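Two folds, back to back.
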Amino acid sequence: MIKSLLQRSLPRTDWGDSVYAFCAHLRRRRRWPRWRNPKRFNDHLYRLKVDGSLQDPLSVFATDKEYAKYYIAAVVGWEHVVETYRILRDKDAVDRLILERLPCVIKPTHLCGHVEFLVDDTQPLPRDVMKSWFDINYYRKSREQNYRGLRPKIIVEEFVSEDGRTVPNDYKIYCFSGIPKLIHVESDQLSNHSQTFYDIFWNKLPITLEYPGASYTHSKPAILDKMLDLAARLSSAFSFVRVDMYIGQGERIRIGELDFCPHSAGGWFHPQTAEEMLGRLFESGRLPETVT
């Protein structure tokens, strides 16, 4: 009730966003945020939420999943952009939608964490779910300022997978001032959802975030060096960004999206000491030895 009251009552201004971010952090983390001299990973992200960094015009532009593709193309080329099939700009367009290319992926351009994978024509088109996305205001829920002015839209795009049918691994590369320093692999999203962490040399790390890590070690991508290079180039304009990418058929790399504040600065790491260890990545050039 308190969260809902704050969402409705606080003004949608920098001051209102700061108050909401403070209350949300205190409620979720059960501690004061330390943003003047942050040490923990989430405290660094909290600082980005309240110091105006997320209002950077390029960050706002690249947050919108439609426009992000133009930024990706400008920096690393269209060959690394997930192909767009359709853009739906209102609920009527959802009712009129006829899918001409399968498999495909459907997701809102203005939200985080919503996606539908359609592999073949035996799956019904989730029109009600899609229309509900137009009514969700992610900025109001998170007060991440890069989402503040985004217009609700839905994108229908290419399904990128190594075999063309299986939901692919999502390689999320954490970059600090243009330097990739951490990778987590999100896999089995429709069954045994896992998030497994590796350093940039593909050493598996004893860290989890929200979901458990996989019981196995993922095969090191043969094109890992290329993935890290693309992430470095895409992140060079930002103090922090997570670059999400997929590997398609023929080892083609596609950039999925850019995330400037993962889990809205509230993700739960295990063990708890990992949050402070990873916080050092904002300052140092490598992972502390105590993590690896």
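---
second:
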Amino acid sequence: MKVTFLSIGLMLLSTLSSGSVQAADTFVLPQGAGTKSGASWENALDASAGGLQKGWDAIAPGETCFVGGGEYKGVTLSVGGGGTEARYKKLVGVNRGGERPRLVGTWTKEMPAKGPDCITLKQGASFWSLENLDIRSYRNAVITSGGRHTGIRLLNIDVTGARAGMELAGGGLAAQPEIGTHDVVIQDCDFVNFTKRGIRFQGGNYKVRVVNCLADAGGKVWATEPFQMGFSVQGSQTSDKKATEASADHDITFVNCTANNSYNDAGAGYWNADGFVAESTPYNLRYENCKALDNTDGGWDDKSRNPVLINCVALRNKRNFRFWTTKGTATLTNCIGAFAVKRGGNSTGAGLWSKGNVRAENCTFHDNTINVDLDEPTARVELVRCIISSSKAKRGTPSTVEAGGQLTLTDTAVWEEGKNGDDPQFASTAWDGTGNGMDSRRYGKAKGYHSGFSASAGRVGARN
């Protein structure tokens, strides 16, 4: 009997030991499989019967809910609990049968304010990761309920057809900014065809990195409400005047992000809709190797304190770069604003528009209606080793300065084809924002934008 009990005990111990990792994880398929216990792909939970939520709720810190490829109609998920700093709780989409999991809702652009949200993040849920999902036709693909998260990862999530891709509330208070959402990474995500915004931060998010993300609003066809914005940092603004004042968003970095095709038809009025947006209370925003293309207002429309742009490209927006701050200075290094397009309404196009303080080094402003526009007496703009240029084909104004504004040019070249200055000899002006088409063959790396610049290493060949 002793031998028998010992044998049974060893068998149980062996079974628990060998199967503990797999048994801890859960598995979900659109219609489930086998016993539908969630213990394996062969016995996956049934998403059509609430299996996605069951799979998430069942896992503990350090465990994963795997979601197999296929279409998941009308599913929603409430993300609560979370893990620990050492043991994240994860939901991971898995390519099975040649496709990723597709979560498909019933939202439509014709009624943008109505419809289901796909993934809701409960207040305080921390140390979790959502990965490898396609989300389609939901009002909000990912939205927070109160914020106050620490250590969240949103990776390789593609959103198509939504009012908003991600709405992240910080939940920070003016008296307690530290409780706001922080330690956030959003990476390799695409937001395509939306009526309002790709990502919005509001109310005290900090220590955030947004990397390799695309926000393509879809242009006129998707502009069914005013107005589209690619990446938006709202800060402490709140629509509820009675609410306790929120803390500001700050220390947010965008790397290799692109914002395209935000559109707003305001008739004879001001056409809004921007690529990158920041309101007045955020601070320490940083943009590296980012692009804003074909938006009906600003490529960048930034009111924040001390934004930094490095190696950024703004093309064919009405106002490629637009800065307002008088409480700090917007700093641009190796940036280019070119080919501004006014698609309708009032106002004028510009390469660089300012109401506040801007310092730009080794930047190019080319073929804009106004290349450098100091639009208010409060504007103070300093251009160092820059190029301001206009071709005959798109002859614009080098600069305009509102009475009282101050424009300082230091070692900066000004060229108007056939009129004055030296031709910077751009390699090619048939340029889409990639390659060396707007490198100056006359000045090389000494003046203006140059494609050989590295945001991490600093200007190639720059003087100390």
